[in-house]
Amino acid sequence: MSLEKVPVTIVTGFLGAGKTTLIRHLMRNPQGRRLAVLVNEFGDVGVDGDLIRACADADCPESNIVELTNGCICCTVADEFIPTIEKLMALEPRPDHILIETSGLALPKPLLKAFDWPGLRSRITIDGVVAVADAEAVAAGRFAPDEENPGEAGEAGADHETPLSEVFEDQIACADLVLLSKADLAGEEGVAAARQIILAEAPRPLSILPIHEGEIDPRVVLGIGAAAEADLAARPSHHDGEDEHDHEDFDTAIIEIPEQKDPQALAAKVEALARTQKILRVKGHVAVEGKPLRLLIQAVGPRVRHQFDRPWGASPRQGRLVVIAEKADLDVDALRAALA
Ligand SMILES: [Zn+2]
């Protein structure tokens, strides 16, 4: 058994920022490393896990890919996360590097703390925390605190934070590297604006790099050597000093979707919904008449992408979309009426 610590890279970032795309890119370019991947999704439709398993190969076989769908990884640290990491560490041969994709709502700090536990600390080190941020959304101020509506007087942390701004700030505050995704959509000005917003938010100097379709030299992402578990004080969180946190501001709905005639028409419906109902994220698979392949739908706000991915095989051709929004914005009946 090697006594060298296994490096772990934590990939954080808000819903739809492009974390899975980045992980897939790293899996395709492992630099001779044997990888293991832990993926966590907020809604239990398992889209990200599917996309990642599709990249399994000799350097990262399916046995090295684990999906945790039972809520946010940050809330299940002791019950699920640590046992899963132990399982990955017990693989033969042992992985050279572990990638963790957190759910878009997960707070990275509770995970970092888990690695500070004696049982893990001697065998694992956090090589780096990488935050993926949607350049266009950041530049548009979608994660900005609400200056108009201060929280209730006297309430802890009532400093204009919104549920979105709070998660975003926690993710940036934990990061060693920020990757600005969808830089092409944001344009040069958008990228510059996003960079300013992130630098103003970051508690310490940070590298910020634009990426397109998850593509970046893996040597930039892997091998940072941050040892973040030993550096927790430099990574402030809105929840420091609290024993527990919750994600009650956000909610998920799963909508069953009947077989569709036209993917474009469904995409247009999803886009319209995002505009009328402030939906943050839609993803899932849908059946299309006469097509043996599943249609994968992924939307971030009003940006909808769809493509056929793989055959339904033995599973029933039942379409299902998971929709994530702030609780106050999620009207399940209206969603069902519009989509089903
Ligand atoms: Zn949590």
What does this structure look like?
With 340 residues, the chain is of the alpha/beta class. The chain has 2 domains: 229 residues, P-loop containing nucleotide triphosphate hydrolases (Rossmann fold), CATH 3.40.50; 90 residues, 2-Layer Sandwich (Hypothetical Protein Yjia, Chain: A,domain 2). It has 11 helices and 12 strands. The strands form 2 sheets. A 7-stranded parallel beta sheet has the order 3-2-4-1-5-6-7, with helices on both faces. Strand 6, helix 8 and strand 7 form a beta-alpha-beta unit. The longest helix has 19 residues. The chain is globular, with a radius of gyration of 20 Å. About 2% of the residues have low confidence. Bound molecules: zinc ion (ZN). The site of zinc ion (ZN) has 7 residues, from loops.
Q: How is the topology of this model organized?
A:
Blueprint: E1 6-13, H1 19-28, E2 35-40, H2 47-53, E3 65-68, H3 77-89, E4 97-101, H4 108-114, H5 118-121, E5 124-134, H6 135-139, H7 163-174, E6 177-181, H8 183-201, E7 207-210, H9 218-221, E8 250-257, H10 263-277, E9 279-286, E10 293-300, E11 303-311, E12 319-326, H11 332-339
Parallel strand pairs: 1-4, 1-5, 2-3, 2-4, 5-6, 6-7
Antiparallel strand pairs: 8-12, 9-10, 9-12, 10-11
